[in-house]
Amino acid sequence: MWNHVKSAIAMLVFFTIVTGLAYPALVAGLAQAFFPQQANGSLILRGGKPVGSRLIGQPFSNPKYFWGRLSATAPYPYNAANSSGSNLGPTNPALFAEVEGRIKALREADPGNSAPVPVDLATSSGSGLDPDISPAAAYYQAPRVARARHLSLARVRRLISGHITGRQFGVLGEPRVNVLELNLALDAVH
Amino acid sequence: MTANGYLQIALFLGAVLLLVKPLGAYMANVYEGRVAFVNRFLAPGENLLYRLCGVDPAQEMRWTQYALAMLVFNLFGALAVYALQRLQPDLPLNPQGFGAVSPDSSFNTAVSFATNTNWQGYSGETTMSYLTQMAALTVQNFVSAASGMAVLIALIRGFARQSVETLGNFWVDLTRGTLYVLLPLSLVLALLLVGQGVVQTFSAYKTVPLLQSQKYDTPRLDAAGRPAKDARGNPVMEKTIRKDQLIAVGPAASQIAIKQLGTNGGGFFNANSAHPFENPTPFSDFLEMLALVLIPAALCYTFGHMIDDRRQGWAIFAAMGIMLVALLAPVEHYEQAGNPLLARLGVDQTASTLQSGGNMEGKETRFGVVNSALWATVTTATSNGSVNSMHDSFTPLGGMVPMWEMQLGEIVFGGVGSGLYGMLIFALIAVFVAGLMIGRTPEYLGKKIQAFEMKMAAIVILIPPLLVLVGTAIAVMTAAGRSGVSNPGAHGFAEILYAFSSAAANNGSAFAGISANTPFYNTALGVVMLFGRYWLIVPVLAIAGALAAKKKIPVSAGTLPTHTPLFVVLLIGTVVIVGALAFFPVLALGPIAEYLSMIAGH
């Protein structure tokens, strides 16, 4: 028994050093050497200053910007220091209230548009930080953004199609539009 | 489902199939000490380690010694995780200045990581310092996985050997599994993940400006720092404007790699692999899903290799693979079909080239329905429990299948080591049932299965349902248990049932709306995790010891062949009947009741 105790403690110390300190440090060293951009949060730089992360969504409610997924992070949406989904069940009245609230806000900002709302635009993401929306959700918002910015609808739709990320290697995942990058591009249009 | 959806699933299954044989053969060689590179270059270091730790690698252990060594090692591992959480404010690598974790949460997390469950009552980025994530949690990710693999290897030796008392040396199996299997695979996977965008840094959280400043309501604080109340006792809210976003980062990639490979599942961030820094792209998603099923699947081949009859390993693999595909189909179907109650509100859930459609609540755009449903199925089939979407928001039946997969006992690939030893126990039950039907003494792999083995096997299959059902019953009967529920009605009951299923099966995923970071749930689930792990491991090792002592009997005309399609069907039937009988009534009260109410329009 005591032999086991001594061996257990010595083994635990060894594995703590190897897998708990040396291994993460080695990965960090290699990551910082070969992938510094990714390893530090995929920050978007403008003039050397960060203006956001390509991977972390930001909240938008102004009609002249594209809006992203709903976010259920606490205590405010898109809190990137406290990721979380809504965890609302499929028959929970709070889910219907959330979806109805988003649809109402979209319709108020764009009264002429009575098309059904793409599902990702009316629901919360799993992380609360989803940087993307579907191309359908972007095109749905194009008329509102065009009007708010006094741009032609064709111009806005061209901007969207230029920002669609296809399936990875043509196969994996879903086509998507990065909301922050699209909005940064909108602000750059003159 | 779309053609692309089928293609993505086929690619995933094909990649698993391709890797089973090479990795399985390599692992068999590792545990048998036959890897030439290791023997030439690494053996001296390995022997030095044994000398320093007071271990004689040549001294083999009886099953009782093997079990004792494993239990003592896991006990000290859990104590270390507890201590590091309690002491983290006084330790380095804590740039956000997090305080000590509460005693009940520390206990729960210590048990959770030592038992390879990796249930998370805490939220990573608001609770754990970088040191705790690395030196406490990452370490257990490795050694709890290696412990499970060691127990499996001991059981396999029980079948492979005859007329001996010993099963191998736990310290040697632990060391080799960690250093030669888990560590190299983790290093490669971690770097691939960083390339896709997973963070790996020791710097403090980053602050970036918001493109559009954010207005939101916060409770106003009075002079004493408490929330101010108005005349009616409601909190007074005030408008706050944020111009910046604080972004949590950290040494995530190194932990995520082993979290997937070791069927651990405890995320670096609260949202687990739904978080864009934990799983940034569809390719990272593919790699992480592959990693979580890779070792459990390959161990089937290791098994066949070590008992010198590869057909037996493939038969077990076939049973697991068929069940996985059969369980995947309903999850994909119901999630893609979406929520009829949302369609009424004017939501478009149809799949097209421009959107994935389906039930997107709690899912990420880049993964859509196909990869979210695939992940949910695979993570609960194996005992991984990491998530890339929130299972609590799945449709009733889409969420029921992952729950049932855990209740089956985590044997559809299951945990590293634990999945296969669990399945081999079911194989013993299957040959026993067959033996009763044809009136012969049951045998498996040339070993007679007698009363002692059957008693132990009965314990192994009866304990998990007992833990789940009794735990759930206690929780729904107490105020402390009911108060954790976040969704009303049948779904709230399902949250509790899911939590106890996950803890008993050492899975770790959750219907995460449940507020489980309370003294009641931290304690109850902690106890269930302990029993769910060690009350199975000890009888499994007892079976291993009893089998090793037996002589092998030659195959005769009366032997039931256990590598045939007939046996695969018998094995699947045994698993499904035991799982369905134990859990159908309780599932009827939760997800099935919710499904009926949903299609009725409520």
Tag the structure with descriptive keywords.
heterodimer, A: 190 residues, mainly alpha, 6 strands, elongated, B: 602 residues, two-stranded antiparallel sheet, 19 helices, 61% helix
Characterization of this structure:
The complex is a heterodimer of chains A (about 190) and B (about 600). Chain A is mainly alpha-helical and about 190 residues long. Chain A contains 6 helices and 6 strands. Chain A has 2 domains: about 1-40; about 40-190, no CATH class. Chain A has helices at about 1-35, 35-40, 95-110, 135-150, 155-160, 180-190, and strands spanning about 45, 50-55, 115-120, 130-135, 165, 175-180. Chain A has a 3-stranded antiparallel β-sheet with strand order 4-6-5. In chain A, strands 1-2 form a two-stranded antiparallel sheet. In chain A, helix 4 packs antiparallel against helix 5. Chain A is elongated. The mean pLDDT of chain A is about 95. In chain B, the strands form 2 sheets. A two-stranded antiparallel ribbon of chain B has the order 1-2. Chain B has a two-stranded antiparallel ribbon with strand order 4-5. In chain B, strand 4 and strand 5 (about 445-450) form a beta hairpin. In chain B, helix 3 runs antiparallel to helix 4 and helix 8 (about 255-260) packs across helix 9. Chain B is globular, with a radius of gyration of 24 Å. The model of chain B has no long low-confidence stretch (mean pLDDT about 95). At the A-B interface, helix 1, strand 2, helix 3, strand 3 and strand 4 of A face helix 1, helix 3, helix 6, helix 7 and strand 1 of B.
Compact summary:
Chain A is mainly α. Chain A contains six helices and six strands.
